[in-house]
Design goal:
By secondary structure, this protein is mainly α. It has one domain. 86% of the residues lie in helices and 0% in strands. It has five helices and no strands. α4 runs antiparallel to α5. The radius of gyration is 20 Å and the shape is globular.
Length: 167
């Protein structure tokens, strides 16, 4: 009876993780499906938040020129950090799925990163067909770095928990 209970929990965990990965892939697709002006507006909102926080911390209102300089400096990094972040989350979810199949470390890492790279490539191809957007190999590399961070983070925690359980 105990084995059945463990098996049911494992199957439920798989189902939940598969649902999460599908939801997260849809989220990424939706971001990529935004026209360039919509995407720029989202980045601008993040920069607006940074400016607001900066003004509150310094207790000083920035001039229009200062604001424009901040936009010019932060626009590209904010956009690329978004890539890292969304793919870091994808990497975490995908690695958790692969870990459920009890395969060796090399294959866990390889399968997880391969899945994320392939999804990133498909995402960049998708963007070719979105108004004002383009596919970019640099974004695939940035996405891959984000995925790898998520996979590495997840596997590191998994390894430490596994060692602690054996003690």
């Amino acid at each position: 009876m105990k084995c059945l209970s463990i098996s049911l929990r494992l199957n439920m965990k798989k189902i939940i993780l598969y649902i999460l990965v599908i939801i997260w892939m849809v989220v990424i697709f939706m971001f990529s499906n935004q026209k360039s002006d919509e995407s720029t507006k989202q980045s601008s909102r993040v920069i607006d938040l940074i400016i607001t926080v900066t003004e509150k911390i310094n207790n000083k209102k920035l001039t229009d020129i200062e604001r424009e300089n901040i936009y010019n400096v932060l626009s590209h990094p904010v956009r690329k950090l978004a890539h890292v972040t969304i793919y870091l989350i994808l990497g975490i979810i995908v690695c958790n799925i692969v870990l459920l199949y009890k395969i060796d470390l090399k294959n866990i890492l390889l399968l997880s990163i391969l899945f994320c790279i392939l999804y990133s490539i498909s995402d960049e191809i998708h963007q070719i067909f979105v108004s004002g957007r383009s596919g970019n190999i640099k974004d695939v590399i940035i996405d891959t770095c984000g995925s790898y961070l998520g996979i590495f983070f997840t596997y590191t925690i998994y390894s430490k928990n596994r060692k602690n359980c054996k003690k």
